[in-house]
């Protein structure tokens, strides 16, 4: 399929006088097969107007139609075949196998949200019947969740499919009944165009209103800024840097009518080596740790950037083995030259800390944007002395924190900012100590793992991919899993509404297998 | 009971060098039986530290103990007897019967949240079992909601009991497992002290950690500002003016770690007179409208400040009858002299609009802070011409909007800001027209009523007392009813956690009648 570089504005293809090209980070060259058009302020406004016009027909269409639309997007993405894998791999530097897996995840999560739409539970139906005999009379009240309105979603650099054009936020917003205006990531415009074409086909096939999806691309930050400021946009989904997320939060808060921003921003994802586990299997833990750290050039939000243990010969052995394995890691192509530069800068800052020792480095880079893995060490008592130790270094860099004892380890954990994940390496003999650590983690993170590694994020019902600030801008939400639909909903209640005017699902006996709370009792 | 004027800081009584007195708005005089102590920055910091220290023991105590604590507060409030009713009535100018009703509501809502704590559904338990055969292996994931941390609650001028010291936000936060630091409203410090004494007794009786509740009082805005800025505070509940709410939002957004603010701020609560209903019962509607408008001197957040109808002889008759009834309304004591001044200023601004006609006024005031009801009229086509028409005038003032036809009426509704409520007066012959109006209301309001009046807010499961900006700062939430517990919770997920380390409710088979989502299915 030949790429056109078009913008997708409410079902209409557009071009503009501003253009940019994609890059191949592995080769360090421009990809010259297409010129991509940068959106103007008018394009953004038109996309938002189209989304607003689509809101009522889309959100009031039968749920079965909404579900079929999500499934059609999944089908059309798969129908793009190898062209999608090749393009996404070329624009991101990620291997084809990884992109193929990500495509499966993306289609899978669209289908999961289709099932969630049909499940209907997200409507949170509640009915309190009237009691006219009471003094004063008790009214009839019925509650359901409704969609917020048009949603702006920002593509992520590190997941060109699963967190981008038809990724998690898009799927959750569409499932909730919200049209989406997508700001494509400038690093993979061709991938975004292919996906937008798939959505365009799904819209046509299922007869959805055209404004239900738009794609605005471009290199200028003003595009995203205009999008978040547009009065028709009612919520924002973002995955990226802390600076980027905080900039969008400021714009959203300064609007005449502020809106929620769900920005996933920054995490160093502590791994805690509990003493018995470290003793029993320190070598294996060191190997698995480096594998999790270096996977995908370390470009995961849940990458283990921090590992904590109690000082002693077992921790020395762990550090030595981790250093050995890490030294053998080949340098890997990073997503963009900007990300590569930021990675090198982050490591340099860490090295500049007087408290930090470099334990090991991966192999020398063999190409322009290749990131070299790195492992540092710092004493627990010094960890809080320099805020640079707390900053995420996006890439395969990690810091080992050597704590004097469990008290110091708990103290360091208590001082951490909000995190997406924390991981306990824990054996039965550690359980008492773990019970001191867990309450601290519950206050700080979205997901707590035992004896695993944080870099897999399962798309399912009980997943939380979120966490307190600055892991995300809003710790009350998740960006992965079915609970993500909640972020684009709000409650409305209906008092003494005649049945003819009530939404169907709120009429007596019409809950059709959805769990509803009726007069306080939960009924299936 | 003799009032001491004490501050309540984490179970310790304190005094300070700054003092203030309560006022009796009906007589326009100071109440000289007690000097109240104004909190210093140190008092605020100490209260927050105590709340932080109480968080872990309070949030991890058995749910049955938490429920008993809430019930004990209700019991102790009732045990205060007539002294509470007399004091609250004197400090607010509200009649004793109204305060007695509000006391019943306050105790009732504490007991409702006690049942909600036991119900356990708010934990939103989800379990996805592992599938080790899958490639890659699927982990075991389990999710529950946990409390956010210490919460700051601000007392409201217009509900000295139900939205103040032990009011809705306090009950919801305590039910969620969050300690509360209360900023008492400076208009009713004696009432706040009495309630704080009841909570103090309940803490002692049920053995709760002392920092679970603190009360900081004072006239200075810096107290509330310091409270919202304190890093230990994790969420804010506020009911008051738009300016006050927006000031707190700004402080919360500017923190190094921003936190959610639930501010209920401003609404004009449109009532829509559908043509057939107006024709069939315009006179009765006019009388009921004025009764709802003037109740409690119009000092309800859900007061009907706007009524819309389609121009014609029926609307003329409605306006005439409403004007007649309103003219016979006695002036009523308002809550504070400041609120009375703002009310008079708001009416003056409305009168200054070139598009507005004054239809009627209530009787002349007979005392210093008495508010005089007022009814204005404006043409639908002029309504959007001056933003002054949109501003809430807190008190018994309302604007009749005369629309040329249904299109214009829908147009005016589409332009409204977010509202707590909208009310349809609707007969069967209006249903087709109502179906055009309802989707507009669903986007704009938290609660839609048919054939009632918005000024009663039932405390129950299906209530939404909330709405899009600026009705509240966060339309995803309600401040009344059991769903309010959600505002103080966030999700945490546990991956491959050994049963011995899992929270009890997440172990297999331990859901005890709570609806849980297990492997995607909802089970009771």
TrEMBL record, chains A, B:
Residues 16-308 form the Aldehyde dehydrogenase domain. Its EC number is 1.2.1.4. Signal peptide: none annotated. The keyword Oxidoreductase applies. Keywords: Oxidoreductase. Transmembrane segments: none annotated. One of its GO terms (molecular function) is aldehyde dehydrogenase (NADP+) activity. It comes from the Bacteria. InterPro entries: Ald_DH/histidinol_DH, Ald_DH_C, Ald_DH_N, Aldehyde_DH_dom, Aldehyde_DH_Superfamily, ALDH_KGSADH. It is an enzyme of class 1 (oxidoreductase). This is NADP-dependent aldehyde dehydrogenase. It comes from Sphingomonas japonica.
């Amino acid at each position: 399929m030949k790429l056109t570089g078009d913008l997708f504005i409410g079902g209409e293809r557009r071009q503009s006088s501003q253009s940019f090209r994609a890059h191949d980070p592995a080769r360090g060259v421009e990809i010259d097969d297409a010129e991509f058009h940068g959106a103007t302020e008018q394009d953004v406004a038109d996309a938002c107007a189209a989304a607003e016009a689509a809101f009522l027909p889309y959100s009031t269409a039968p749920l079965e139609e909404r579900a079929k639309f999500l499934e059609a997007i999944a089908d059309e993405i798969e129908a793009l075949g190898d062209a999608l894998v090749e393009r996404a791999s070329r624009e991101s530097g990620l291997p084809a196998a990884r992109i193929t897996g990500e495509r499966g995840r993306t289609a899978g999560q669209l289908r999961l949200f289709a099932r969630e739409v049909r499940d209907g539970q997200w409507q949170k139906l509640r009915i309190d019947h009237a009691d006219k005999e009471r003094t004063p009379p008790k009214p009839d009240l019925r509650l359901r969740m409704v969609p917020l309105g048009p949603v702006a979603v920002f593509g992520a650099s590190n997941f060109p499919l699963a967190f981008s054009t038809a990724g998690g936020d898009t799927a959750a917003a569409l499932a909730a009944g919200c049209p989406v205006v997508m700001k494509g990531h400038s690093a993979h415009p061709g991938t975004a165009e292919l996906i937008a074409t798939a959505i365009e086909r799904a819209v046509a096939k299922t007869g959805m209103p055209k404004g239900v999806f738009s794609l605005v691309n471009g290199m200028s930050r003003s595009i995203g800024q205009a999008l978040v400021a547009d009065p028709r946009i009612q919520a924002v989904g973002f995955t990226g840097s802390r600076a980027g997320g905080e900039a969008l939060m400021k714009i959203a808060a300064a609007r005449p009518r502020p809106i929620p921003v769900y920005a996933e921003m920054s995490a160093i994802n502590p791994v805690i080596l509990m003493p018995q586990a470290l003793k029993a299997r320190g070598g294996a833990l060191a190997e698995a740790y480096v594998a999790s750290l270096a996977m995908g050039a370390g470009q995961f939000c849940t990458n283990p950037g921090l590992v904590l243990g109690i000082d002693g010969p077992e921790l020395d052995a762990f550090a030595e083995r981790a250093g050995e394995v890490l030294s053998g890691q080949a340098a890997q192509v990073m997503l963009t030259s900007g990300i590569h530069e930021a990675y090198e800068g982050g490591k340099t800052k860490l090295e500049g800390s007087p408290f930090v020792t470099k334990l090991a480095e991966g192999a020398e880079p063999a190409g322009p944007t290749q990131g070299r893995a790195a492992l540092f060490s710092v004493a627990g008592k010094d960890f809080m002395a320099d805020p640079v130790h707390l900053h995420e270094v996006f890439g395969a860099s990690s810091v080992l924190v050597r704590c004097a004892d469990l008290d110091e380890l708990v103290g360091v954990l208590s001082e951490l900012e909000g995190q997406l994940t924390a991981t306990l390496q824990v054996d039965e003999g550690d359980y008492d100590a773990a019970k001191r650590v867990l309450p601290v983690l519950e206050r700080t993170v979205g997901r707590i793992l035992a004896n695993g590694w944080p870099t897999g994020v399962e798309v399912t019902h009980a997943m939380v991919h979120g966490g307190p600030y600055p892991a995300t801008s809003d710790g009350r939400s998740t960006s992965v899993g079915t609970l993500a639909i909640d972020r684009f909903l709000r409650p409305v209640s209906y008092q003494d509404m005649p049945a003819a005017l009530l939404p169907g699902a709120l009429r007596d006996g019409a809950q059709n297998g959805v769990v509803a709370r009726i007069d306080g009792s939960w009924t299936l």
